[in-house]
């Protein structure tokens, strides 16, 4: 290492410039010890220069905020901190092997099989497609937390699989060999694949619309509808006193997903306003129709034999109701007018306010998560 680039010895004089003529053109200069370095003064950051994408502000400088709500999402997410090891799965092992019917085991296994792959897909989409393209650090910081949470969710499903003693290879491969599970993953990959590319130019208006539509699919449909509705079959078991440990794990995941969806909806609304962009109604209609078809096929498979208190028709009807809610939250036309809330107890699962034996399981009322506001 030459003397000019030694940072462990501040008394070493700088080496003579390799190209004095070129060095003489660089001005102004500042003196650091006995070294002469070019000045690097920059203009202060103006929050107005920040944008969701294509921003001109310094991506490394958090404040001043342009999107303070994004920072609040980060703070809220940290109040819901947990790990799957905090929840006992002992009763679930007994329930699965001695109480569940074959139809109920089929439901439980395939919900896990779908979720394990979906959360990895979500983690990759945020890290590779979304976070890299958003140019305000307050947005990126929440999404960094979101990437962690998707990994945590994957750990949770793995913990459930291991605790119950399921065949890991068989469960994880179901998304590849069961068409109805694969269909949802394949649709998500197709909708998100192009925008994952690092060279996807968002200064191009057509590409910007595609990015907004893809992010709408991810935040509003994939997380806001498929995930929100996807835990319901296990909650139906929980309501009958079955698989309560796994269901409680999913309740914590659901709280995360509610925040993910709410953040994504806020980003979509801000992006459309900021870029004077409108989502093509025909493209939206196609999105909704594809999502409904995939969800219907999935419901018909996992609930091919209905379980007590739950069936495929209820699952799809609730998907349509949640889809209408998400559409209203974004400010676009409802895709399924007249859809009814056939599972009014579903929203209660996100609240997770239950009396518990202090020595048996986590008491959520003592956690900061109790201060969170939900959907």
Tell me what the structure shows.
The chain is an all-alpha fold and 375 residues long. Helices cover 57% and strands 2% of the residues. It has 2 domains: 3-38, no CATH class; 62-371, Ribonucleotide Reductase, subunit A, CATH 1.10.620.20. It starts with 19 loop residues before the first helix and ends in a 45-residue tail after the last helix.
Structure characteristics:
single chain; 375 residues; mainly alpha; Ribonucleotide Reductase, subunit A; 2 domains; two-stranded antiparallel sheet; 2 strands; globular; disordered C terminus
- The percent range for helix content is 55-70%
Instruction: Provide the β-strand percentage band.
Output: under 5%
CATH topology-level fold name of the largest domain? Ribonucleotide Reductase, subunit A
Q: What would you report as the Rg, rounded to the nearest angstrom?
A: 25 Å
Fourth CATH level, the homologous superfamily of the largest domain: Ribonucleotide Reductase, subunit A
CATH architecture of the largest domain: Orthogonal Bundle
Q: Which stretches are low in confidence, meaning pLDDT under 50 for 5 or more residues running? A: 5-17, 354-375
Total number of helical segments?
A: 13
Number of domains: 2
Alpha-beta classification? mainly alpha
What is the CATH level 1 assignment of the largest domain? Mainly Alpha
DSSP E strands, number = 2
Question: What is the string of helix and strand elements?
Answer: HEEHHHHHHHHHHHH
Largest sheet: 2 strands, antiparallel
- Which strand order spans the largest sheet, edge to edge or round the barrel? 1-2
Shape: globular
